[in-house]
Specification:
2,3-Dihydroxybiphenyl 1,2-Dioxygenase, domain 1; 4-stranded mixed β-sheet; elongated; about 170 residues; alpha/beta; single chain
């Protein structure tokens, strides 16, 4: 009997993005230039024009798979739907530099990079292939909010009760 295979292949994580694009070879180039991606592999389609499957690695993290759209098999890029409902979050060492490179390479800014209350410098963009990215660098460790004191909880409960009583009282 053969050796038991590990259920998640080496280099992958349990959740692995699989991007469908129009122009997978060009997308790989964009991700290399903008995000410092490294190509892991590519498999051309029988038509010689599209990629059936490809994989890249960004920032030494897990694999991101991608392929050209194959509408004849029900596989469409975000552009076929007028956009994407999904955003890929990418932590990097220098969000300002990575964001600027992505914009220089043709990404569209959705939200400029800014310092956020949760401790990240963070911005959002759409790549030339229609995929949304949020890009961030952690600059400060945020601490979870402290639990409310018993006094604050009591006061909040009293205020909520008073509001309910006003709603329940008959109008005159």
């Amino acid at each position: 009997m053969s050796e038991q295979a590990y259920p998640i292949p080496e280099g992958f994580t349990a959740v692995t993005p699989h991007l469908v694009v129009d122009g997978a070879a060009a997308a790989i180039g964009f991700y290399e230039r903008a995000f410092g991606a490294e190509e892991v592999m590519r498999t051309p389609a029988p038509d010689g024009k599209r990629l059936m499957h490809a994989a890249i690695r960004i920032g030494g993290g897990g694999v991101v798979m991608l392929a050209d759209a194959f509408p004849e098999f029900g596989s469409h890029s975000p552009k076929a739907f007028g956009g994407s409902a999904v955003s890929i979050h990418l932590y990097v060492g220098d969000v300002d530099a990575v964001f600027a490179r992505a914009v220089k390479e043709g990404a569209m800014v959705v939200m400029p990079v800014a310092t956020m209350a949760w401790g990240d410098r963070y911005g959002r963009l759409v790549d030339p292939f229609g995929h949304h990215w949020s890009i961030a660098t952690r600059i400060a460790q945020s601490s979870p909010p402290s639990p409310p004191s018993p006094f604050d909880m009591l006061k909040s409960s009293q205020e909520a009760f008073a509001s309910l009583m006003k709603l329940a009282s008959p109008m005159k």
